């Protein structure tokens, strides 16, 4: 087990990152190699993996089994569900989401990357950039993941040749630039043998960049959300009505972004009523200020109607409320999303009835063009939608706030998640929609 002390952990930063890539590109093996070589695996876990590998007739331990926990995953040698792993080095703590590669599990990749600050996209050096690579890059761009690592894996199977790596890195970087991804770091690796994962490779002296772990330990992490738009989705109204607290009325929730201070003027949306923060309770104790990710209870100076689903914001920085939401979505359900589809829209802690009014375009992953008015979005499609809600919603642009600029669409019949949505522009540099007259009839 890692020898990182509690005191050292307290002084380190936290990085949330996800892995993605096509089937058999080696994501789980990379994760297993990271855990093993950073000494973040218990002895009994290694012994269990060794036994499972021996039962499958393998000479050595299959490190992919450290993350593939479901029986179906081990039997088929694939990843199905998102596997979360926690580990630490002397320099940083990590929360890792190992996501599936199969197209039908794209919804799981969306889940794993939605809170990530970095995504590692693996490519098999023998196959190069394939459609699923482009899909994962597009999702990372849509979710505004600030850092992307291109890990060109299985370099041992192409003789560790630099031209192979350079060609793949150039193709992917050009594609990522079109998507508006701000930063791509390309690293040639072999997860199976450990080349450039934790330790530098002795077989690729032509590469002078960091290993995967070195980059993960040193990439800038932006946890300073104090300057973002302050937002508190109300999750619960606390009214003890006890002898000790006969008049206590607090509004509890997790601060999605920014900070709140006692004495600050705030507005409750969507009602638009204004008041002042008279107190903030944190872990049962009063504080003067609270900030992002803290779960708090706000006390308000005026007795106004506030309930679950409302959004408390600074009056001087309140988002507009609207019943017309235009967004880029990734459709994750097996059944298609169509114009006229009646859905439930969940935004923060609020759920409202809604209808899909229009689907203006669907993204073509090959060339990033937008196919106009497709009529529907099938499973794993990415496209633009216009939604009309039954009640006004206070929404931010996703580019400004990943928490209050996102939503999901739910099937009202059975509660199935249909679509993950991001309000506002699709990418940092979106391609214009093609005119119908320019459409040559091909539908990719």
Report what the structure shows:
By secondary structure, the chain is α+β, with helices and mostly antiparallel strands. Helix content is about 20%, strand content about 35%. It has helices at about 5-10, 25-35, 45-55, 70-75, 105-115, 130-140, 160-180, 210-220; strands at about 15-20, 85-90, 90-100, 120-125, 145-155, 185-190, 230-235, 235-240, 250-255, 260, 265-270, 275-280, 285, 290, 295-300, 310-315, 320-330, 335-340, 340-345, 350-365, 370, 375, 380-395, 405-410, 415-425. The strands form five sheets. Strands 7, 8, 9, 11, 12, 13, 15 and 16 form an eight-stranded antiparallel beta sheet that branches. It has a six-stranded mixed beta sheet with strand order 2-3-1-4-5-6, with helices on both faces. β2 and β3 form a beta hairpin. The longest helix is centred in the middle third of the chain and has 18 residues, at about 160-180.
């Amino acid at each position: 087990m890692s020898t990182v002390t509690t005191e050292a952990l307290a002084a380190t930063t936290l990085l949330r990152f996800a892995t993605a890539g096509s089937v058999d590109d080696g994501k789980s093996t990379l994760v297993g190699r990271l855990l093993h070589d950073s000494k973040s695996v218990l002895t009994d876990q290694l012994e269990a993996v060794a036994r499972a590998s021996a039962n499958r007739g393998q000479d050595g331990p299959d490190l992919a089994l450290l993350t593939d926990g479901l029986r179906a995953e081990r039997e088929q040698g694939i990843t199905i569900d998102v596997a979360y792993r926690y580990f630490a080095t002397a320099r940083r703590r990590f929360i890792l989401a190992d996501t599936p590669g199969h197209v039908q599990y794209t919804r799981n990749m969306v889940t794993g990357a939605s809170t990530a600050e970095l995504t590692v996209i693996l490519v098999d050096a023998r196959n190069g950039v394939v459609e699923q690579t482009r899909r994962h890059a597009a999702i990372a761009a849509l979710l505004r993941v600030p850092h992307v690592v291109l890990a060109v894996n299985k370099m041992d199977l192409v003789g560790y040749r630099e031209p192979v790596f350079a060609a793949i890195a150039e193709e992917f970087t050009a594609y990522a630039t079109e998507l508006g991804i701000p930063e791509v770091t390309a690293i040639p690796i072999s997860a199976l043998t450990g080349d450039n994962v934790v330790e530098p490779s002795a077989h690729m002296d032509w590469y002078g960049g960091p290993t995967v772990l070195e980059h993960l330990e040193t990439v800038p992490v932006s946890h300073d959300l104090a300057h973002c738009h302050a937002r508190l989705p109300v999750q619960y109204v606390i009214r003890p009505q006890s002898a000790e607290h006969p008049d206590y009325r607090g509004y509890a929730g997790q601060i999605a972004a920014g900070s709140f201070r006692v004495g600050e003027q705030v507005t409750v949306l969507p009602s638009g009523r204004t008041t002042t923060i008279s107190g903030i309770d944190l872990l049962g104790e009063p504080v003067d200020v609270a900030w992002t990710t803290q779960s708090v209870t706000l006390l308000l100076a005026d007795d106004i109607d506030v309930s679950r689903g409302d959004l408390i914001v600074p009056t001087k920085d309140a988002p507009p409320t609207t019943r017309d939401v235009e967004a880029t979505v990734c459709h994750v359900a097996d059944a298609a999303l169509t114009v006229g589809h009646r859905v439930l829209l969940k935004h923060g802690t609020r759920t409202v009835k809604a209808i899909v009014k229009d689907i203006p375009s669907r993204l073509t992953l090959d060339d990033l063009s937008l196919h106009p008015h497709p009529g529907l979005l099938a499973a794993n499609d990415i496209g633009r939608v216009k939604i009309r809600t039954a009640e006004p919603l206070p929404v931010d642009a996703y580019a400004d706030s990943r928490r209050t600029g996102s939503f999901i669409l739910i099937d009202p019949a059975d509660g199935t998640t249909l679509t993950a949505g991001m309000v506002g522009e699709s990418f940092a540099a979106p391609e214009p929609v093609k005119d119908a007259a320019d459409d040559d009839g091909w539908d990719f």
